[in-house]
Specification:
Blueprint: H1 15-27, H2 29-33, E1 42-46, H3 66-74, E2 76-80, H4 94-97, H5 102-106, H6 119-128, E3 133-139, H7 166-176, E4 180-186, H8 194-197, H9 199-216, E5 222-226, H10 238-248, E6 253-256, E7 273-275, E8 294-300, H11 317-329, E9 333-338, H12 348-363, H13 365-370, E10 372-377, E11 383-386, E12 391-395, E13 416-417, E14 427-430, E15 436-441, E16 449-451, E17 479-481
Parallel strand pairs: 2-3, 2-9, 3-4, 4-5, 5-6, 7-8, 8-9, 13-17
Antiparallel strand pairs: 1-12, 1-14, 10-11, 11-12, 14-15, 15-16, 16-17
Helix pairs in contact: 6-7, 9-10, 11-12
Bound molecules: alpha-D-glucopyranose.
Length: about 475
Protein backbone atom coordinates (compact mmCIF):
# COMPACT_ATOMS: atom_id res chain seq x y z
CA UNK A 1 0.00 0.00 0.00
CA UNK A 2 1.30 3.39 -0.88
CA UNK A 3 -0.28 6.16 1.06
CA UNK A 4 0.69 9.41 2.62
CA UNK A 5 1.06 8.86 6.32
CA UNK A 6 2.03 11.08 9.18
CA UNK A 7 5.42 10.57 10.78
CA UNK A 8 3.63 9.94 14.03
CA UNK A 9 2.02 6.79 12.78
CA UNK A 10 5.17 5.19 11.49
CA UNK A 11 6.74 4.14 14.79
CA UNK A 12 3.62 2.21 15.72
CA UNK A 13 3.93 -0.19 12.85
CA UNK A 14 5.38 -3.60 12.88
CA UNK A 15 8.94 -3.38 11.63
CA UNK A 16 8.43 -5.36 8.48
CA UNK A 17 5.46 -3.32 7.41
CA UNK A 18 7.24 -0.17 8.47
CA UNK A 19 10.17 -1.06 6.29
CA UNK A 20 7.82 -1.79 3.48
CA UNK A 21 6.07 1.53 3.87
CA UNK A 22 9.25 3.54 4.18
CA UNK A 23 10.62 1.90 1.08
CA UNK A 24 7.46 2.41 -0.82
CA UNK A 25 7.02 6.04 0.07
CA UNK A 26 10.65 6.76 -0.63
CA UNK A 27 11.21 5.02 -3.90
CA UNK A 28 7.90 4.02 -5.30
CA UNK A 29 6.12 0.98 -6.48
CA UNK A 30 8.83 -0.71 -8.47
CA UNK A 31 10.97 -1.28 -5.43
CA UNK A 32 8.03 -2.32 -3.35
CA UNK A 33 7.46 -5.18 -5.71
CA UNK A 34 10.92 -6.49 -5.14
CA UNK A 35 10.62 -6.20 -1.38
CA UNK A 36 10.96 -9.18 0.88
CA UNK A 37 8.15 -11.67 0.55
CA UNK A 38 6.67 -12.82 3.81
CA UNK A 39 7.13 -16.49 4.20
CA UNK A 40 6.20 -18.50 7.20
CA UNK A 41 8.67 -20.99 8.65
CA UNK A 42 8.76 -24.68 8.06
CA UNK A 43 9.23 -26.79 11.13
CA UNK A 44 11.39 -29.81 11.85
CA UNK A 45 10.46 -32.04 14.75
CA UNK A 46 12.65 -34.32 16.79
CA UNK A 47 9.85 -36.44 18.07
CA UNK A 48 11.52 -39.18 20.01
CA UNK A 49 12.24 -37.80 23.49
CA UNK A 50 15.36 -39.92 23.70
CA UNK A 51 16.60 -38.11 20.62
CA UNK A 52 15.54 -34.67 21.72
CA UNK A 53 18.80 -32.84 21.63
CA UNK A 54 18.48 -30.28 24.33
CA UNK A 55 17.77 -30.23 27.98
CA UNK A 56 16.61 -27.89 30.61
CA UNK A 57 15.40 -24.34 30.83
CA UNK A 58 16.90 -21.39 32.58
CA UNK A 59 17.84 -21.60 36.22
CA UNK A 60 16.96 -19.05 38.81
CA UNK A 61 13.64 -17.96 37.38
CA UNK A 62 10.43 -18.01 39.39
CA UNK A 63 7.83 -20.69 38.74
CA UNK A 64 4.71 -19.28 37.04
CA UNK A 65 1.41 -19.29 38.94
CA UNK A 66 -0.90 -21.93 37.45
CA UNK A 67 -3.11 -19.20 35.97
CA UNK A 68 -0.09 -17.62 34.26
CA UNK A 69 1.13 -20.98 32.97
CA UNK A 70 -2.36 -21.56 31.57
CA UNK A 71 -2.32 -18.14 29.94
CA UNK A 72 1.00 -18.93 28.27
CA UNK A 73 -0.39 -22.13 26.86
CA UNK A 74 -3.38 -20.25 25.42
CA UNK A 75 -0.71 -18.81 23.14
CA UNK A 76 -2.76 -17.15 20.46
CA UNK A 77 -5.82 -14.97 20.86
CA UNK A 78 -8.21 -12.76 18.93
CA UNK A 79 -8.47 -9.10 19.88
CA UNK A 80 -11.72 -7.32 19.02
CA UNK A 81 -12.36 -3.58 19.04
CA UNK A 82 -16.06 -2.96 18.67
CA UNK A 83 -18.07 0.11 19.62
CA UNK A 84 -19.89 3.18 18.35
CA UNK A 85 -16.80 4.07 16.32
CA UNK A 86 -17.25 0.92 14.24
CA UNK A 87 -20.14 2.65 12.48
CA UNK A 88 -17.90 5.50 11.33
CA UNK A 89 -15.25 3.23 9.87
CA UNK A 90 -12.28 5.43 10.68
CA UNK A 91 -10.79 3.53 13.56
CA UNK A 92 -11.44 3.61 17.30
CA UNK A 93 -9.72 6.99 17.80
CA UNK A 94 -12.06 8.77 15.37
CA UNK A 95 -13.76 10.90 18.02
CA UNK A 96 -10.44 12.19 19.27
CA UNK A 97 -8.66 12.59 15.94
CA UNK A 98 -11.58 14.18 14.11
CA UNK A 99 -12.51 16.22 17.20
CA UNK A 100 -16.13 15.10 17.09
CA UNK A 101 -18.08 16.88 19.84
CA UNK A 102 -19.34 14.49 22.50
CA UNK A 103 -23.07 15.13 21.85
CA UNK A 104 -22.65 14.57 18.17
CA UNK A 105 -20.58 11.43 18.72
CA UNK A 106 -23.08 9.85 21.07
CA UNK A 107 -25.86 10.44 18.54
CA UNK A 108 -24.40 7.29 17.03
CA UNK A 109 -25.98 5.41 19.92
CA UNK A 110 -29.34 5.78 18.16
CA UNK A 111 -28.10 3.68 15.27
CA UNK A 112 -26.05 1.18 17.25
CA UNK A 113 -27.92 -2.05 16.57
CA UNK A 114 -25.17 -4.69 16.59
CA UNK A 115 -27.55 -6.92 14.63
CA UNK A 116 -24.79 -9.30 13.56
CA UNK A 117 -22.87 -9.36 16.81
CA UNK A 118 -22.78 -12.96 17.98
CA UNK A 119 -20.37 -14.13 20.62
CA UNK A 120 -20.80 -17.66 19.37
CA UNK A 121 -19.98 -16.72 15.76
CA UNK A 122 -16.92 -14.74 16.85
CA UNK A 123 -15.71 -17.59 19.01
CA UNK A 124 -16.22 -20.06 16.19
CA UNK A 125 -13.96 -18.07 13.88
CA UNK A 126 -11.36 -17.86 16.62
CA UNK A 127 -11.56 -21.59 17.24
CA UNK A 128 -11.22 -22.51 13.59
CA UNK A 129 -8.28 -20.12 13.35
CA UNK A 130 -6.58 -22.02 16.16
CA UNK A 131 -6.96 -19.20 18.68
CA UNK A 132 -7.75 -20.05 22.26
CA UNK A 133 -8.93 -16.78 23.75
CA UNK A 134 -10.64 -13.56 22.72
CA UNK A 135 -10.14 -10.15 24.27
CA UNK A 136 -13.09 -7.85 23.58
CA UNK A 137 -13.41 -4.13 24.32
CA UNK A 138 -15.97 -3.82 27.10
CA UNK A 139 -15.34 -0.06 27.05
CA UNK A 140 -12.93 1.97 24.94
CA UNK A 141 -11.54 5.49 25.34
CA UNK A 142 -14.78 7.08 24.03
CA UNK A 143 -16.47 5.94 27.24
CA UNK A 144 -19.12 3.77 25.55
CA UNK A 145 -19.70 0.39 27.23
CA UNK A 146 -20.81 -2.79 25.52
CA UNK A 147 -22.35 -3.99 28.80
CA UNK A 148 -25.10 -3.04 31.16
CA UNK A 149 -23.42 -0.63 33.56
CA UNK A 150 -26.43 -0.83 35.91
CA UNK A 151 -26.95 2.90 35.83
CA UNK A 152 -23.30 3.90 36.23
CA UNK A 153 -23.23 5.42 32.76
CA UNK A 154 -25.86 6.44 30.23
CA UNK A 155 -23.38 5.67 27.50
CA UNK A 156 -23.94 1.96 27.48
CA UNK A 157 -25.44 -0.61 25.17
CA UNK A 158 -28.73 -0.79 27.06
CA UNK A 159 -29.46 2.75 25.83
CA UNK A 160 -29.17 1.73 22.18
CA UNK A 161 -31.43 -0.16 19.78
CA UNK A 162 -29.15 -3.17 20.29
CA UNK A 163 -30.81 -3.38 23.68
CA UNK A 164 -28.86 -6.39 24.91
CA UNK A 165 -25.75 -6.89 26.95
CA UNK A 166 -23.11 -7.74 24.35
CA UNK A 167 -20.59 -8.81 26.96
CA UNK A 168 -23.03 -11.45 28.20
CA UNK A 169 -23.56 -12.67 24.65
CA UNK A 170 -19.80 -12.68 24.10
CA UNK A 171 -18.91 -14.57 27.26
CA UNK A 172 -21.60 -17.20 26.70
CA UNK A 173 -20.61 -17.62 23.05
CA UNK A 174 -16.95 -18.10 23.98
CA UNK A 175 -17.76 -20.72 26.58
CA UNK A 176 -19.93 -22.63 24.13
CA UNK A 177 -16.95 -22.86 21.76
CA UNK A 178 -14.31 -23.59 24.37
CA UNK A 179 -12.68 -20.18 23.99
CA UNK A 180 -11.55 -18.22 27.06
CA UNK A 181 -13.13 -14.74 27.25
CA UNK A 182 -10.95 -11.79 28.23
CA UNK A 183 -12.11 -8.20 28.60
CA UNK A 184 -10.33 -5.07 27.48
CA UNK A 185 -11.22 -2.03 29.57
CA UNK A 186 -10.03 1.51 29.05
CA UNK A 187 -8.64 3.36 32.01
CA UNK A 188 -8.74 6.74 30.29
CA UNK A 189 -11.99 8.39 29.27
CA UNK A 190 -12.49 11.16 26.70
CA UNK A 191 -16.11 11.86 27.64
CA UNK A 192 -16.52 11.41 31.39
CA UNK A 193 -15.87 14.91 32.79
CA UNK A 194 -14.54 13.42 36.02
CA UNK A 195 -11.48 12.17 34.14
CA UNK A 196 -10.35 15.81 33.87
CA UNK A 197 -11.96 17.47 36.87
CA UNK A 198 -12.31 14.80 39.57
CA UNK A 199 -9.77 12.07 38.91
CA UNK A 200 -10.36 10.30 42.23
CA UNK A 201 -14.10 10.24 41.58
CA UNK A 202 -13.41 8.94 38.09
CA UNK A 203 -11.22 6.13 39.44
CA UNK A 204 -14.02 5.11 41.79
CA UNK A 205 -16.35 4.94 38.75
CA UNK A 206 -13.74 2.88 36.91
CA UNK A 207 -13.51 0.39 39.79
CA UNK A 208 -17.29 0.10 40.03
CA UNK A 209 -17.42 -0.44 36.27
CA UNK A 210 -14.86 -3.22 36.53
CA UNK A 211 -16.61 -4.75 39.53
CA UNK A 212 -19.73 -5.23 37.41
CA UNK A 213 -17.66 -7.09 34.85
CA UNK A 214 -16.13 -9.22 37.60
CA UNK A 215 -19.44 -10.21 39.15
CA UNK A 216 -21.91 -10.57 36.28
CA UNK A 217 -20.52 -13.07 33.82
CA UNK A 218 -18.84 -15.91 35.69
CA UNK A 219 -15.12 -16.61 35.35
CA UNK A 220 -13.26 -14.25 33.03
CA UNK A 221 -9.85 -15.23 31.67
CA UNK A 222 -8.36 -11.84 32.28
CA UNK A 223 -8.65 -8.08 32.23
CA UNK A 224 -6.67 -6.02 29.73
CA UNK A 225 -6.40 -2.40 30.81
CA UNK A 226 -5.29 0.33 28.47
CA UNK A 227 -4.80 4.05 28.86
CA UNK A 228 -2.45 4.42 31.80
CA UNK A 229 0.10 5.78 29.35
CA UNK A 230 -2.14 8.84 28.89
CA UNK A 231 -1.16 10.19 32.32
CA UNK A 232 2.25 8.91 33.08
CA UNK A 233 2.66 10.58 36.45
CA UNK A 234 -0.85 10.21 37.82
CA UNK A 235 -1.72 7.98 40.75
CA UNK A 236 -4.05 5.50 39.10
CA UNK A 237 -4.75 3.76 42.43
CA UNK A 238 -3.84 0.48 40.86
CA UNK A 239 -3.78 -1.37 44.21
CA UNK A 240 -7.49 -0.73 44.61
CA UNK A 241 -8.36 -1.54 40.99
CA UNK A 242 -6.56 -4.86 41.00
CA UNK A 243 -7.91 -5.70 44.46
CA UNK A 244 -11.41 -5.64 42.93
CA UNK A 245 -10.31 -8.26 40.43
CA UNK A 246 -8.45 -10.43 42.94
CA UNK A 247 -11.49 -10.34 45.24
CA UNK A 248 -13.95 -11.58 42.63
CA UNK A 249 -11.80 -13.24 39.97
CA UNK A 250 -8.66 -14.52 41.69
CA UNK A 251 -7.62 -16.58 38.67
CA UNK A 252 -7.96 -13.77 36.14
CA UNK A 253 -4.86 -12.54 34.35
CA UNK A 254 -4.22 -8.83 34.83
CA UNK A 255 -2.63 -6.87 32.00
CA UNK A 256 -2.11 -3.12 31.78
CA UNK A 257 -0.85 -2.06 28.38
CA UNK A 258 2.37 -0.08 28.59
CA UNK A 259 1.80 1.30 25.08
CA UNK A 260 4.00 1.85 22.09
CA UNK A 261 6.76 3.62 23.96
CA UNK A 262 7.35 1.19 26.78
CA UNK A 263 7.02 -2.21 25.28
CA UNK A 264 7.93 -5.03 27.61
CA UNK A 265 8.10 -2.80 30.67
CA UNK A 266 7.07 -4.36 33.97
CA UNK A 267 4.60 -2.53 36.17
CA UNK A 268 2.54 -2.99 39.31
CA UNK A 269 3.28 -6.20 41.26
CA UNK A 270 -0.24 -7.57 40.63
CA UNK A 271 0.24 -7.51 36.87
CA UNK A 272 0.68 -10.94 35.31
CA UNK A 273 1.89 -10.16 31.81
CA UNK A 274 3.89 -7.46 30.07
CA UNK A 275 2.74 -6.11 26.69
CA UNK A 276 4.52 -5.47 23.40
CA UNK A 277 1.94 -3.41 21.51
CA UNK A 278 2.67 -3.72 17.80
CA UNK A 279 6.26 -4.63 18.32
CA UNK A 280 8.43 -7.66 18.14
CA UNK A 281 8.61 -9.16 21.59
CA UNK A 282 12.06 -9.57 23.01
CA UNK A 283 13.08 -12.40 25.34
CA UNK A 284 12.27 -11.69 28.95
CA UNK A 285 15.06 -11.93 31.45
CA UNK A 286 13.20 -13.41 34.39
CA UNK A 287 16.22 -14.19 36.52
CA UNK A 288 15.77 -12.78 39.96
CA UNK A 289 12.18 -11.64 39.32
CA UNK A 290 9.87 -11.81 42.35
CA UNK A 291 7.17 -13.42 40.28
CA UNK A 292 7.02 -15.00 36.85
CA UNK A 293 5.55 -12.61 34.27
CA UNK A 294 4.23 -13.78 30.94
CA UNK A 295 4.36 -11.64 27.81
CA UNK A 296 1.89 -10.80 25.07
CA UNK A 297 2.26 -8.95 21.79
CA UNK A 298 -0.83 -7.39 20.26
CA UNK A 299 -1.04 -6.56 16.61
CA UNK A 300 -3.84 -5.60 14.28
CA UNK A 301 -4.77 -6.89 10.83
CA UNK A 302 -4.36 -3.46 9.25
CA UNK A 303 -3.28 -0.14 10.78
CA UNK A 304 -6.38 0.43 12.90
CA UNK A 305 -7.94 -1.50 15.76
CA UNK A 306 -11.57 -0.53 15.13
CA UNK A 307 -13.17 -0.89 11.67
CA UNK A 308 -11.45 1.38 9.13
CA UNK A 309 -13.10 1.24 5.74
CA UNK A 310 -10.28 2.81 3.72
CA UNK A 311 -7.40 1.01 5.30
CA UNK A 312 -6.33 -1.84 3.06
CA UNK A 313 -3.03 -2.59 4.74
CA UNK A 314 -3.95 -6.11 5.64
CA UNK A 315 -1.66 -8.78 6.96
CA UNK A 316 -1.39 -11.92 4.89
CA UNK A 317 -1.73 -15.38 6.45
CA UNK A 318 2.05 -15.81 6.01
CA UNK A 319 2.68 -12.63 7.98
CA UNK A 320 0.27 -13.71 10.70
CA UNK A 321 2.12 -17.03 11.01
CA UNK A 322 5.48 -15.26 11.10
CA UNK A 323 4.36 -12.95 13.87
CA UNK A 324 2.85 -15.81 15.82
CA UNK A 325 6.17 -17.62 15.54
CA UNK A 326 8.14 -14.51 16.53
CA UNK A 327 6.02 -14.38 19.69
CA UNK A 328 6.34 -18.05 20.54
CA UNK A 329 10.06 -17.92 19.88
CA UNK A 330 10.39 -15.83 23.03
CA UNK A 331 7.50 -17.49 24.88
CA UNK A 332 5.08 -14.61 24.33
CA UNK A 333 1.40 -14.82 23.42
CA UNK A 334 0.13 -13.29 20.18
CA UNK A 335 -3.10 -11.30 20.34
CA UNK A 336 -4.26 -10.48 16.84
CA UNK A 337 -6.92 -7.83 16.34
CA UNK A 338 -9.80 -7.58 13.92
CA UNK A 339 -12.22 -4.65 13.84
CA UNK A 340 -15.76 -6.02 13.41
CA UNK A 341 -18.15 -4.34 10.98
CA UNK A 342 -20.65 -1.69 12.13
CA UNK A 343 -23.18 -4.46 12.84
CA UNK A 344 -20.63 -6.56 14.72
CA UNK A 345 -19.69 -9.23 12.19
CA UNK A 346 -16.15 -10.21 11.34
CA UNK A 347 -15.23 -8.99 7.85
CA UNK A 348 -14.67 -11.59 5.14
CA UNK A 349 -11.02 -11.06 4.37
CA UNK A 350 -9.85 -11.01 7.97
CA UNK A 351 -11.86 -14.11 8.88
CA UNK A 352 -10.56 -15.97 5.85
CA UNK A 353 -6.97 -14.89 6.50
CA UNK A 354 -6.94 -16.08 10.09
CA UNK A 355 -8.64 -19.31 9.13
CA UNK A 356 -6.01 -19.91 6.47
CA UNK A 357 -3.24 -19.25 8.99
CA UNK A 358 -5.11 -21.66 11.25
CA UNK A 359 -4.55 -24.45 8.75
CA UNK A 360 -0.82 -24.02 9.22
CA UNK A 361 -1.30 -23.88 12.95
CA UNK A 362 -3.27 -27.11 12.98
CA UNK A 363 -0.16 -28.88 11.71
CA UNK A 364 2.03 -27.28 14.34
CA UNK A 365 -0.22 -27.24 17.38
CA UNK A 366 2.09 -28.99 19.78
CA UNK A 367 5.06 -26.84 18.79
CA UNK A 368 3.15 -23.57 18.99
CA UNK A 369 1.11 -24.13 22.13
CA UNK A 370 3.39 -26.30 24.22
CA UNK A 371 6.75 -25.27 22.81
CA UNK A 372 8.88 -23.16 25.09
CA UNK A 373 12.15 -21.39 24.37
CA UNK A 374 15.18 -23.60 24.86
CA UNK A 375 18.94 -23.54 24.59
CA UNK A 376 19.12 -24.75 21.03
CA UNK A 377 20.03 -21.78 18.88
CA UNK A 378 19.42 -21.37 15.17
CA UNK A 379 21.11 -19.11 12.68
CA UNK A 380 19.56 -15.85 11.57
CA UNK A 381 15.89 -15.95 12.37
CA UNK A 382 15.75 -19.73 12.79
CA UNK A 383 14.91 -20.87 16.29
CA UNK A 384 13.87 -23.90 18.27
CA UNK A 385 11.18 -24.66 20.84
CA UNK A 386 11.02 -27.57 23.19
CA UNK A 387 8.02 -29.49 24.53
CA UNK A 388 8.13 -32.41 26.97
CA UNK A 389 7.95 -34.74 23.95
CA UNK A 390 9.93 -33.15 21.21
CA UNK A 391 12.17 -30.40 19.99
CA UNK A 392 11.05 -28.28 17.06
CA UNK A 393 13.34 -26.32 14.75
CA UNK A 394 11.64 -23.46 12.94
CA UNK A 395 13.32 -22.84 9.60
CA UNK A 396 12.50 -19.38 8.30
CA UNK A 397 12.96 -17.54 5.04
CA UNK A 398 11.95 -20.35 2.80
CA UNK A 399 11.21 -17.50 0.44
CA UNK A 400 10.24 -19.54 -2.54
CA UNK A 401 9.60 -23.17 -2.11
CA UNK A 402 8.45 -24.44 -5.46
CA UNK A 403 10.62 -26.10 -8.09
CA UNK A 404 13.37 -24.00 -9.61
CA UNK A 405 12.03 -24.59 -13.10
CA UNK A 406 8.72 -22.92 -12.45
CA UNK A 407 9.43 -20.45 -9.69
CA UNK A 408 11.57 -17.46 -10.35
CA UNK A 409 14.24 -17.07 -7.74
CA UNK A 410 13.32 -20.37 -6.17
CA UNK A 411 15.62 -21.35 -3.41
CA UNK A 412 15.54 -23.47 -0.33
CA UNK A 413 16.79 -22.37 3.04
CA UNK A 414 20.40 -23.24 2.40
CA UNK A 415 22.58 -24.88 5.02
CA UNK A 416 21.28 -24.35 8.50
CA UNK A 417 23.16 -24.65 11.74
CA UNK A 418 21.77 -25.09 15.20
CA UNK A 419 23.99 -25.00 18.24
CA UNK A 420 23.53 -25.76 21.89
CA UNK A 421 22.43 -29.38 21.66
CA UNK A 422 23.57 -31.62 24.43
CA UNK A 423 23.50 -34.85 22.43
CA UNK A 424 23.72 -35.94 18.83
CA UNK A 425 20.62 -35.65 16.72
CA UNK A 426 19.57 -38.84 15.03
CA UNK A 427 16.60 -37.83 12.97
CA UNK A 428 13.89 -35.30 12.38
CA UNK A 429 10.71 -34.99 10.37
CA UNK A 430 9.00 -32.04 8.78
CA UNK A 431 5.84 -31.41 10.75
CA UNK A 432 3.79 -30.37 7.72
CA UNK A 433 4.09 -33.67 5.90
CA UNK A 434 5.79 -36.04 8.32
CA UNK A 435 8.55 -36.58 5.82
CA UNK A 436 11.82 -37.65 7.32
CA UNK A 437 13.92 -34.62 6.68
CA UNK A 438 17.35 -35.10 8.13
CA UNK A 439 19.60 -37.92 9.04
CA UNK A 440 22.52 -37.47 11.29
CA UNK A 441 25.91 -38.64 10.20
CA UNK A 442 28.21 -38.82 13.11
CA UNK A 443 31.58 -37.72 11.82
CA UNK A 444 33.54 -38.35 14.94
CA UNK A 445 34.08 -35.48 17.30
CA UNK A 446 32.88 -32.13 16.13
CA UNK A 447 29.64 -30.85 14.74
CA UNK A 448 26.88 -33.22 13.83
CA UNK A 449 26.18 -33.21 10.15
CA UNK A 450 22.55 -33.66 9.31
CA UNK A 451 21.71 -34.69 5.81
CA UNK A 452 18.48 -34.02 4.04
CA UNK A 453 17.48 -37.02 1.98
CA UNK A 454 16.64 -36.27 -1.63
CA UNK A 455 13.23 -36.04 -3.18
CA UNK A 456 11.67 -34.87 -6.36
CA UNK A 457 11.33 -31.22 -7.25
CA UNK A 458 8.00 -30.96 -5.53
CA UNK A 459 9.35 -31.79 -2.16
CA UNK A 460 9.21 -35.55 -2.15
CA UNK A 461 6.49 -38.05 -2.82
CA UNK A 462 5.09 -37.79 0.69
CA UNK A 463 4.11 -34.17 0.13
CA UNK A 464 0.50 -34.22 1.20
CA UNK A 465 -0.93 -31.32 -0.72
CA UNK A 466 0.01 -28.65 -3.15
CA UNK A 467 0.19 -25.79 -0.72
CA UNK A 468 3.33 -23.89 -1.43
CA UNK A 469 4.81 -24.04 2.03
CA UNK A 470 4.90 -27.78 1.77
CA UNK A 471 6.85 -27.72 -1.44
CA UNK A 472 10.34 -27.20 -0.11
CA UNK A 473 12.77 -29.18 -2.12
CA UNK A 474 14.52 -31.24 0.54
CA UNK A 475 17.69 -31.42 -1.46
CA UNK A 476 18.06 -27.73 -0.98
CA UNK A 477 17.91 -27.93 2.78
CA UNK A 478 21.49 -28.96 2.79
CA UNK A 479 22.55 -29.52 6.30
CA UNK A 480 22.00 -28.58 9.86
CA UNK A 481 25.23 -28.34 11.76
CA UNK A 482 26.62 -27.23 15.00
CA UNK A 483 25.67 -29.83 17.55
CA UNK A 484 28.44 -30.66 19.93
CA UNK A 485 29.25 -34.37 20.16
C1 LIG B 1 -3.57 1.74 21.90
C2 LIG B 1 -4.75 2.55 21.45
C3 LIG B 1 -5.98 1.82 21.44
C4 LIG B 1 -5.95 0.34 21.25
C5 LIG B 1 -4.76 -0.28 21.90
C6 LIG B 1 -4.62 -1.73 21.59
O1 LIG B 1 -3.34 1.83 23.23
O2 LIG B 1 -4.95 3.71 22.21
O3 LIG B 1 -6.91 2.43 20.62
O4 LIG B 1 -7.06 -0.13 21.87
O5 LIG B 1 -3.63 0.39 21.55
O6 LIG B 1 -3.39 -2.19 21.98
Amino acid sequence: MIRARSILEIPSMHTSRREMLLDSTAVGLSLLLSHRVFAHPRVLAFRDPSEAPIAGGEDDIPVPKPSVARFESLGYGLFLHFGLYSQLGRGEWVKHIDKIPTDEYFRRMKTFEAREFSGRALARVARTAGMRYITLTSRHHDGFSLYDTRGLSVYDVTHTPAGRDLILDFVEGCRAEGIVPFLYHTTLDWTDPRFESDFKGYLQYLRESVEILCTSYGPIGGFWFDGKWSRKDADWEEDALYAVIRRHQPEAIIVNNTGLEHRGRTGHPEIDSVTFERGTPTPMDRRGMKKYLSAEMCETMNFHWGAAFNDFNYLSPAHVIEELCACREVGANYLLNIGPSPQGALPDYESAAVRRAGEWLKMHEEAIYLGRPCRLRGQGRDFALRTPNATYCFILDLTHTAATKVQQGARGPGPRHFSGADRPIKSAVWTDNEERAVRSERRGPGPQHLEIPGGDEHGGSSCKAGRCFMMADPRRIDDVRGFPP
